[in-house]
Amino acid sequence: MNKISETKASAGAAKGKRQPAEAKLAELKYRLLEISDLMAAEALLDWDQSTYMPGGGAPARARQSATLSRLAHEKSVDPALGDLLDALAPYGAGLPYESDEASLIRVARRDFEKAIKLPSDYVVRASELRSASYNAWTRARPGNDFVSMVPFLEKAVDLSREYAGFFAPYQHVADPLIDAADEGMTTVAIRSLFAELRRELIPLVRAISAQPMTGDDCLHGSFSEQEQLEFSLAVVKRFGYDLERGRLDKTHHPFCTKFSSGDVRITTRVDENYFGDALFSTMHESGHALYEQGVAAAFEGTPLGSGTSAGVHESQSRLWENVVGRSRVFWEHFFPALRDAFPDQFRQIGFETFYRAINKVQRSLIRTDADEVTYNLHIMMRFDLELDLLEGHLRVKDLPEAWRARMQADLGLAPTDDRDGCLQDVHWYAGSVGGGFQSYTIGNILSAQFYAVALASNPDIPREIAKGEFGTLHGWLQKQLYQHGRKFCPTELVMRATGGPMSTAPYLAYLRSKYGELYRLPTADQAS
Ligand code: ZN
Fold first, then answer.
1. CA of residue 190 to ligand 1 center, whole Å
2. DSSP states of 371-416 as a string?
3. Residue 170 contacts by C-beta under 8 Å, 6 or more apart in sequence?
């Protein structure tokens, strides 16, 4: 720390080009650390608000968060930061692309250039709309009152188009919004990816729906909160979630948050009448946490110190929750432990009944309750509707009708009210339309792609999982993905880890194989 403060003190004197690159780099790291500290403090306020804060704290908390956000933003667009990055550009260019320093300079430059494109009055207006719209939505959804949300949503569409305008020229108005979450992805690329997936998913859902419905009665009953939390925590500890550097708390909408590499927290929710919600959401968040705990400690306090994109992040939550946590081999080990933990509830239940219950496929109205097979249809629908809104082909007031029509076409059922329709997700009511949904499906696609490559190089992984051991899988992910943080952009990371670009093939093969067996569907040879 001494070195940093000396550098800071002498920064003014040894100004500009006379300053050696090492000193400039130290000053850059110091400035980035301040931004990171402010953002971590804000994240801690948010975590507290979602877990333990009494309701009375809300007004002051909103102001405190806004103050920290503003300070972080001011520091992110400080012209002195830009000068420093300019001065360091030749030094960075002389270093190997993969070196920590070159990567730091490259990523900090990219962040800076994005941040300065946003005028501060826009940042303020966007933040005001976010809070006002979210507050209104918390009342409108339970009240099934879409009409009251129309003006908010119209503003959100306008602001999102305005955001895109700061990054012009673009091919499609949604591109800058998508790029903000999944760097390098575009509307065109996602449309073609989704079309590929859709061609296979629609017939798969149809074939499954033609089979006798699986029940999930065994998951309903009475399951004490304490025991559900203990079981969930025991599982994610086995995955490799480090409780010396993490903890689990309860909340309404589970999330994972990071304050430093030594403090990565997860949250979950518990339904005492349904077994599954707590366990699978804990597994899901632990996937995000394993990623964050795995980022190289050397990147702490820099823009490299977190996961690379929303889609890659989601690939990890899905991998641990679904590919691992809903697999047959996983439960070969954990089902006996589950029976021990809940003898009254599961003593009479056979393995097969339980395994089918946690993998039940059912066309349903609510995205967050959807199974692995139908889930992506919910995402594709939202993605297409938000493009229509941004392009101006769909008016906000016509959204509920467009939603019902698309649900009927894709999933064969439509909501009778907007609460279970276009009001169900917070995304569009948090001040921005576009770029918020594609990451979930990208995550599903990548979860299977990463797992397939891990398996090809370590064929013992399923046998280890069947023994409740996850070290080889976790080690592979740590080495190929986690440690790199944001050093590589998503396309680079996928290419390095899997030897090719993102592909839907492993995911479709995974779904066909798993659900083909579960629902006794004809194999590809038999079908053709
Ligand atoms: Zn997630």
1. 19
2. -HHHHHHHHHHHHHHHHHHHHTSS-GGGHHHHHHHHHHHHHS---S
3. 164, 176
Please say which residue of 59, 93, 117 terminates a domain: 117
Considering the domain architecture, whether residues 96 and 192 belong to the same structural domain is answered as: no
Which domain, by its residues, includes 56? 3-117
For the annotated catalytic residues, the residue numbers are: 285
Strands (E), 400-475: none
pTM higher than the cut 0.85: yes
Ligand 1 center from residue 314 Cα (angstroms)? 5
Report helix angle 505-518 to 438-457, nearest 10: 80
Q: Which helix (H) or strand (E) holds 208?
A: helix 187-209
Query: What total of structural domains would you count in the chain?
Result: 2
Q: Going residue by residue through the chain, which has 528 residues, state the pLDDT in tens, using 9 for 90 and above.
A: 334 443 444 444 444 456 799 999 999 999 999 999 999 999 999 999 999 999 899 889 888 988 998 899 999 999 999 999 999 999 999 999 999 999 999 999 999 999 999 998 898 899 889 888 988 998 999 999 999 999 999 999 999 999 999 999 999 999 999 999 999 999 999 999 999 999 999 999 999 999 988 889 999 999 999 999 999 999 999 999 999 999 999 998 899 999 999 999 999 999 999 999 999 999 999 999 999 999 999 999 999 999 999 999 999 999 999 999 999 999 999 999 999 999 999 999 999 999 999 999 999 999 988 999 999 999 999 999 999 999 999 999 999 999 999 999 999 999 999 999 999 999 999 999 999 999 999 999 999 999 999 999 999 999 999 999 999 999 999 999 999 999 999 999 999 999 999 999 999 999 999 999 999 898 755 544
Measured distance CA(160)–CA(157) in Å, rounded: 5
Question: How far is ligand 1, taken at its centre, from the CA of residue 313, in Å?
Answer: 7
Residues 353 and 241 in one domain: yes
CA distance 484 to 486: 6
- Is 151 a domain residue? no
Compute the distance from residue 141 Cα to the ligand 1 centre, in Å.
22
Same domain, 393 and 261: yes
Where among 90, 117, 144 does a domain terminate? Answer: 117
Distance from the CA of 225 to the center of ligand 1, in angstroms? Answer: 22
Angle between helices 21-51 and 58-76 (to 10 degrees): 160
Distance from Cα 311 to the centre of ligand 1, integer Å: 9
285 Cα: distance to centroid of ligand 1 (angstroms): 6
